[in-house]
Amino acid sequence: KGRLIVSDQFGSLYRFTPPSAGSPLDADAIEPVPAKIRAVNGMVWAFGALYCGVNDYEQKIPSGLYRLTDSTGDDQLDKVELLREVPSRGDHGVHAVVPAPDGKSLYLVTGNNSKPPRIERSSPVRQVWGEDHLLPSMPDGRGHNRGVLAPGGIIYKVSPDGKVFEAYANGFRNIFGGAVNRDGELFTYDADMEYDFNTPWYRPTRLCHVTSGSEFGWRSGTGKWPTWYADSLPQVVDIGPGSPVGVNFGTGTKFPEKYQRAVYLCDWTFGTMYAVHLQPRGASYVGIREEFVARAPLPLTDVAIGDDGAMYFTIGGRGAQSELFRVTYTGKASTAPAGPGADKFAPLRRLRRSLEAFHGQQDPATVQAALNHLGHADRHIRYAARIALESQPVASWQDAVLAQENPAGL
User: Fold this and answer.
1) Comparing C-alpha atoms, which of 190, 348, 193, 181 is closest to residue 281?
2) Residues 27, 16: contact at Cβ < 8 Å?
């Protein structure tokens, strides 16, 4: 209905209809949402309900995935259902809920201080989370996350009723948001570890292309995987120091085409929203970052696109003053909806997805399909082929893999 629903970090939900451009919001137009829920970190309207990722630092209600509905037909969200508890603590817990491109499921984004719940569906992520370091890993010198081991932050693929959870990707530090582009590809913005500054294992905040079964190598202390590890996937672009929060694409904005296609990343610490302009490259993407909105202070928390074609973003958190901003375009460039762009790499993405279709499934056809691409020149295709193969009985492929002459296929 074109309304915005907003959350208090330690309180409840509110909703309102944005006023016309150039007009401020009348405080009397803000309605409390009657649903008895609090500490919502992320939410999305889908399947006729409001799905909420609750991360309650004060532990007054369980953290996890909730569904809010109108039980009486009076246009008020009053029924609260806990679909799945995801035990969490601190800032690095349960965050965004994102519609999956299949139109049948949701992604739930969680950080590295959440504990995996029960996982029902055969998962593309191999749940073999031993750290297996050749040399002992040193924990952080200041004690941060001492004893917190792999898998780190996980993105789950979840059925609308919350009864089926599947670990879709892992190995993140503290991912807060996620968004899907026009190609149906998922992206997230992962955190750095500020205490690692000036060490060889420091990894800046970074935009990640999240594919089926992907692993991004977060490990506590010195154990983080370098980007070149074949067991993991690389970032799309490094951003730098900061605290990643909300993520969204510009799809639906009345912006020039370039900005409709961009992905927007919010950094809480340095008060900057980046626009990253993606270009297909192989079976994935490369990106160029641009500072889009910045101010000191501007503790960004999330960004949404309204039905009016405007961008809305919020600031606040940890007791800071909360504010709501609207971004509109003024200029002569066309703001007509962007159509499909030229993309010579689409066949490679289709090949990668055809291999991902085998992830978590035991299918005899998988073995030959995966063996054909274990040594592919594209890293994302090699990775998809390997995960597909690892879903099959080892005896069905072990001899064929060891007979490969291409080292990239081993």
Assistant:
1) 348
2) no
Q: Please provide the distance, in angstroms rounded to a whole number, between the alpha carbons at the two ends of the chain.
A: 53
Burial class (CB in 10 A: 0-12, 13-18, 19+), 34: middle
Q: Which pLDDT value is given to residue 312?
A: 97
The secondary structure of 349-384, three-state, reads HHHHHHHHCCCCCCCHHHHHHHHCCCCCCCHHHHHH
Q: Which amino acid is at 103?
A: G
Q: How confident is the model at residue 377 (pLDDT cuts 50, 70, 90)?
A: very high
**Dihedral (C-alpha) 330, 336, 337, 341: value to the nearest 10 degrees?**
-110
CA-closest candidate to residue 382, choices 370, 392, 391:
370
- Specify the 3-state DSSP secondary structure of 307: coil
Reported as half-sphere exposure (CB side, CA atoms, 13 A), residue 216 has a value of 33
E strand or H helix that includes residue 279: strand 272-281
* Structure confidence at residue 136 (pLDDT): 85
Q: Which token pair is 97?
A: 């809920």
> What single-letter amino acid sits at 335?
T
* pTM of the model as a whole: 0.97
What tokens were used for 301?
Answer: 């928390």
Which pLDDT score, from 0 to 100, does residue 396 have?
94
**By mean pLDDT, which of 128-137, 172-181, 229-238 is the weakest?**
128-137
